[in-house]
């Protein structure tokens, strides 16, 4: 990794601007999506009754772990961040935060995250959160990002770890269901990220980062997005009974979202050069995962089960009445 263009004199700032710079290092817009996948796993694991303190601690620990990983990423990628127009104003390449100070900040975030989860949740959840940081930095950022067009496919495992953390925080172990949630997010990540990569293909090409649109072109990227979407949508049906713990409410939400996801991926496949379609798919992919996880939470609530049972019983009674009437 080079350090070209990173030796910019630090600007004079007030305390508020300094705090804003450190917050920007953590890429805060990314974190809410990670947290909602954590929360969904916790609600399912607890059958809709999450202990408030455990929820708060786990989400805070997850936030700090993600913030640590993103800060480390900013340190490592400061050279290409300076060369890309989109990222040149980030705190490190712009000179507002020095790399050594950012490193101390990242380490502190990681340590606090580990301690919080290990003390107030359990050791397994803490170790999983640290594994997420390690995979993001070593596997994705260091090994794959600048060397392979499959970088986001394999490196996407880091973004799929939060539901494992959430499940482990509640149960202290990992069964098949959290790994299914892991797999769903893992397969969802390429369509999500490659649609963004299609929008900023020229930026990646300028700094020789071999994202799929740069290496294989827009048509092949759109085809890969379509294929991954074809896989992930059916996968979202696996948590539904009789195989999984979720029921009709989640099934309805997942069905509608899946149909829309497939529609948007198909449109992009037909017009892979259309950046507006890529932008639309990227934005929808975020909404898709957030609403899918919300559906999991709502379906896991005891009141949802009670309402579902009441509706089913009412329909059964109606059917019996109709059968007697026409009998």
Automatic annotation (TrEMBL):
Q: How is the protein disposed in the membrane?
A: Multi-pass membrane protein
Gene Ontology molecular function, alphabetical? protoheme IX farnesyltransferase activity
Q: What does this protein do?
A: Converts heme B (protoheme IX) to heme O by substitution of the vinyl group on carbon 2 of heme B porphyrin ring with a hydroxyethyl farnesyl side group.
Among Pfam families, the record links this protein to: UbiA
Q: Which PROSITE patterns match?
A: UBIA
**Family indicated by similarity:** Belongs to the UbiA prenyltransferase family. Protoheme IX farnesyltransferase subfamily.
Spell out the note in the miscellaneous section: Carbon 2 of the heme B porphyrin ring is defined according to the Fischer nomenclature.
Q: Which UniProt keywords apply?
A: Cell membrane, Heme biosynthesis, Membrane, Transferase, Transmembrane, Transmembrane helix
* Database matches in HAMAP family: CyoE_CtaB
- Biological process, per Gene Ontology: heme O biosynthetic process
| Protein EC | 2.5.1.141
Provide the species name. Answer: Rubidibacter lacunae KORDI 51-2
Q: Where in the cell is it found?
A: Cell membrane
Instruction: Kindly list the residue ranges recorded as spanning the membrane.
Output: 30-46, 52-76, 97-117, 123-140, 152-170, 176-194, 225-241, 247-265, 277-298
Q: Which reaction does it catalyse?
A: heme b + (2E,6E)-farnesyl diphosphate + H2O = Fe(II)-heme o + diphosphate
Quote the protein name from its UniProt record. Protoheme IX farnesyltransferase
Q: In which pathway does it act?
A: Porphyrin-containing compound metabolism; heme O biosynthesis; heme O from protoheme: step 1/1
GO cellular component terms, alphabetically, are: plasma membrane
Q: From what superkingdom does this record's organism come?
A: Bacteria
